[in-house]
Automatic annotation (TrEMBL):
Alphabetical UniProt keywords: Aminotransferase, Pyridoxal phosphate, Transferase
GO molecular function: transaminase activity
Enzyme class: transferase
Stated family: Belongs to the class-I pyridoxal-phosphate-dependent aminotransferase family.
Protein name as annotated: alanine transaminase
Cofactor(s) listed: pyridoxal 5'-phosphate
EC number annotated for this UniProt entry: 2.6.1.2
SUPFAM superfamilies in UniProt: PLP-dependent transferases
InterPro entries the UniProt entry points to: Ala_Aminotransferase, Aminotransferase_I/II_large, PyrdxlP-dep_Trfase, PyrdxlP-dep_Trfase_major, PyrdxlP-dep_Trfase_small
Aminotransferase class I/classII large domain mapped to chain residues: 34-394
């Protein structure tokens, strides 16, 4: 047989969170090394249990979950999601506007596949959650990155957004709360993004999968709640807010003026039908989660485990010479900066690989999030405080040696 090559359409597709350095870590684990992993936002693997009521209801419903469901999801889940959109003040959402998927990930790819033709451009943040960039490329579109401004708490740079719009621009992606920076966007900024989208006829894709993982008493506004005209697709799910990544239960909601989007919506319906349906057991967890009493609040409030770990990780990481970091207001990550004068890194993947080899700590390099310079990395603050202390201590030791090189 001839050498089997991957398709040409994968040439520009990249997903470094599970990329080559992770393979290296797996290899090291097979050789018996113990690695502290600060690389993936998988809550369950750090002892953050999913709410018991979700598990119980999924178990109870398992016998009813052996068949295919409606392609857009079971009624109970979509009804609960509809109520959730009402709580978030998103107007005019009916059951038909809701698609349940195997996590948000599947729906992101679906939404891009239904939209894009060759030459179409989508504005994606830098840094981003890299699935967005990958999904645009895989769908034949061109991701165009707009900068988020570290000096302004990682808020999107509106002038940069404006300067990157042209006749091929179809949509803008916003990730709020943000992975990897932990930023939370204020309403006035959301209004400005809506205005840009309105002027240039862009669709807004709003990834809000962390909308309940909020610290310091801040509140989250869905961008879809702030306009009734701009076509907006909002993504959310159980993975993070309900610590249930493995159940693969996510959804997307179409809102705004849908009259001009009939064709696109037909495309979404077709792609939803082609994959038959999302996994049915996961769908049965949605109503219980959204209507349930076991929320994430205890973990994020003052003294809660996630909040303590965020505070500790931030304190420790910013105590290292030449490392600065915007304190996250939300989500599970921080995106520290390594002063290039002190750490003249040329290739940040190599840097992260060396850290792994020397100190057995796994992080993800900033360029893996489409950040243009090799001067950042992402840290997940999910491990217990002792492990965080140990891990950041090892990073500090590695950096101290790096400075002496
Ligand atoms: N969007 C963002 C911003 C994420 O960080 C993640 C996962 O880390 C996802 C989407 C994927 O979520 P899901 O588990 O629902 O596929």
């Amino acid at each position: 047989m001839k050498h089997v090559k991957k398709s040409a359409k994968l040439a520009n597709v990249c997903y470094d969170i599970r990329g080559p350095v992770l393979q290296m870590a797996k290899q090291m684990e097979e050789e018996g090394h113990k690695i502290i992993k600060l690389n993936i936002g998988n809550l369950a693997s750090f002892g953050f249990d999913s709410p018991e009521e979700i598990q119980q209801d999924m178990i109870r419903n398992l016998p009813n979950a052996a068949g295919y469901t409606d392609s857009k999801g079971i009624f109970a889940a979509r009804k609960a999601i509809m109520h959730y959109t009402q709580q978030k003040h998103i107007k005019g959402v009916t059951l038909e506007d809701i698609y349940v998927g195997n996590g948000v990930s599947e729906l992101i790819v679906m939404a891009m596949n239904a939209l894009l033709d060759a030459g179409d451009e989508v504005l994606v943040p830098a840094p981003d959650y890299p699935l967005w960039t990958a999904a645009v490329s895989l769908s034949g579109g061109k991701p165009v990155h707009y900068l988020c401004d570290e000096e302004k708490g990682w808020l999107p740079d509106l002038d940069d957004i404006r300067s990157k719009i042209n006749k091929n621009t179809r949509a803008i992606v916003i990730i709020n709360p943000n992975n990897p920076t932990g930023a939370l966007y204020p309403d006035d900024l959301l209004h400005e993004i809506i205005e840009i989208a309105r002027q240039h006829h862009l669709i807004i894709y709003a990834d809000e999968v962390y909308d309940k993982v909020l610290y310091d008493g801040v509140t989250h506004t869905s961008i879809a709640a702030l306009s009734e005209d701009v076509l907006t697709i909002t993504f959310n799910g159980l993975s993070k807010n309900y610590r249930s990544c493995g159940y693969r239960a996510g959804w997307m909601v179409v809102s705004g003026d849908k009259r001009h989007a009939k064709d696109y919506i037909e495309g979404l319906d077709m792609l939803a039908s082609m994959r038959l349906c999302a996994n049915a057991p996961g769908q049965h967890g949605i109503q219980t989660a959204l209507g349930g009493y076991q929320s994430i609040d205890d973990l994020v409030r003052d003294g809660g485990r996630l909040r303590r770990q965020r505070d500790l990780a931030h304190e420790l990481i910013t105590a290292i010479p030449g490392v600065s970091c915007v304190k996250p207001k939300a989500a599970l990550y921080m995106f520290p900066r390594l002063d290039p004068k002190i750490y003249p890194i040329k290739n940040d993947q190599q840097f992260i690989a060396e850290l792994l080899q020397e100190e057995k700590v796994l992080l993800v390099q900033g360029t893996g999030f489409n950040w243009p310079q090799p001067d950042h990395f992402r840290l997940v603050f999910l491990p217990h405080e002792d492990d965080l202390r140990e891990a950041v201590g090892r990073v500090a030791r590695f950096l101290e040696n790096y400075r002496k090189r």
